[in-house]
Amino acid sequence: MIVVSDLVGTLTTGSPTLGLVSWARHNQSALRANFFLARLLPRYFLARIGLIDMRKFGEWSMIASLPLIKNATEEMVREMALWSVDKVMWPKRRPDVLGRLARHKEQGADLYIASSALEPAVAALGERIGAAAIGSPIEIIDGRLRFVPKMIEGSRKGEEVFKRLKVDRVSAAYGDTWADIPILERADHPVAVYPDAKLRAAAVEHGWEILENTTAG
């Protein structure tokens, strides 16, 4: 039994990108981190009011945040990922969705978190709940971080998940946006968590479960 869950918006409302920025502010350069946030906020507000696509904004912010970490090492990336979970993602977790995954785990399921976020951050949260990570791999070249070969964009996430798992379907899947639809369509039990408008419409059309009123803890 295989269960796949999205990360941001599904398991937590915390942002791995903001976790990276937080780590950089406290451990490298507050000036660089604050300058990045000054660039980020105008785009964020445009995304919030629908003038730019929120998913595209998230992808841009993740790519743009990588240069904040200077002289990167594997140990440093690991430290940043754990910081991101401890300080940002875990405090804003969705307990009832995590409870669902815990029950799947008790029933013998293999859990996977699938996200376009940095794979080290996805893996760090996965360690908390006994889940493997399917994220955007990164590499270090001359102390700089970059995606390998590029980040897993929303439209590619479903393809990447089934490619890595080497299966055609999964037992259950959880997601919160339209980008998760390709995975939910190939799940025996698809669950839309706090769905955006496109996912909600698809869930209603197909009769998928909609999980709402989740309180972040």
Topology:
Blueprint (H helix, E strand, L loop, with lengths): L1 E4 L10 H12 L2 H19 L5 H12 L8 H16 L5 H12 L3 E9 H11 L1 E6 L1 E4 L2 E4 L6 H12 L4 E6 L5 H4 L2 E7 L3 H10 L2 E3 L6
Parallel strand pairs: 1-2, 1-6, 2-3, 6-7, 7-8
Antiparallel strand pairs: 4-5
Helix pairs in contact: 1-2, 1-3, 1-4, 2-3, 4-6
Contiguous low-pLDDT stretches (5 residues minimum) are: none
Radius of gyration: 17 Å
Q: How far is the N terminus from the C terminus?
A: 28 Å
Summed over residues and divided by their number, the pLDDT gives a mean of 92
Indicate the proportion of strand residues. 15-25%
The spatial strand order of the largest sheet comes to 3-2-1-6-7-8
Please tally the helical runs, counting DSSP H or I stretches of 4 or more residues.
9
CATH H-level homologous superfamily name:
HAD superfamily/HAD-like
Structural class based on helices, strands and sheet pairing = alpha/beta
Give me the count of strands: 8
What's the CATH class label? Alpha Beta
Note down, in words, how this protein is organized.
The protein is of the alpha/beta class and 217 residues long. The protein has one domain (2-211): 3-Layer(aba) Sandwich (Rossmann fold), CATH 3.40.50. Helix content is 50%, strand content 20%. It is built from 9 helices and 8 strands. Strand 6 (170-175), helix 8 (181-184) and strand 7 form a beta-alpha-beta unit. Helix 1 runs antiparallel to helix 2 (30-48). The protein starts with a strand and ends in a 6-residue tail after the last strand.
